[in-house]
Amino acid sequence: MVDMIPVLLGTAGMVDGECYLLDKGKDIVIGRSRSCDISLRRTATYLKTPPSQRDADHDFNTVSRRHIRLNITNNTANVQDLSTNGSFCNGEPMRDPINIDLGTGPCTVRMGTRESVQLLLLPSDDPRLKQAQSVSMQTQKNLGDAADAD
Question: Domain residues for 94?
Fold first, then answer.
């Protein structure tokens, strides 16, 4: 039997194309701040975009510095909206923390007006995992940059 790995796949916006391995039992904060476990300011698209263009990107700026918190336990994701601009789960506004059974299929989470990710389980032999980033490694990089301006 193949192990199933919880991942977050970027599907729209600056996070499109990114893939993150999610640590079970650990709170993971996602947002624009470089101090987040998953910082949208560290995505390949963001880093390639000229500074003047990213500063003027209204849709990207609707993502809060600390936008959502998630925690994976077994095959369940607990997702909490931390933002003032709103988060959506499968198109529905998130008002309270929600639990998502990833065993039943993927869930799409949108932050602000555009940035979207899918929470899902992938088989350990899925080729997308070869390019996946460990959230633990991302967090260690962020700690070194804690003094950076957000």
Answer: 4-144
Burial class (CB in 10 A: 0-12, 13-18, 19+), 56: exposed
Residue 70 within a domain: yes
Rounded to two decimals, the pTM is 0.87
Per-residue pLDDT tens over the stretch 30-79: 999 999 999 999 999 999 999 999 889 999 999 999 999 999 998 999 99
Determine contact, residues 37/24, Cβ cutoff 8 Å: no
Render 20-45 in DSSP notation, one character per residue.
Answer: EEPPBTS-EEEESSTTSSEEGGGSHH
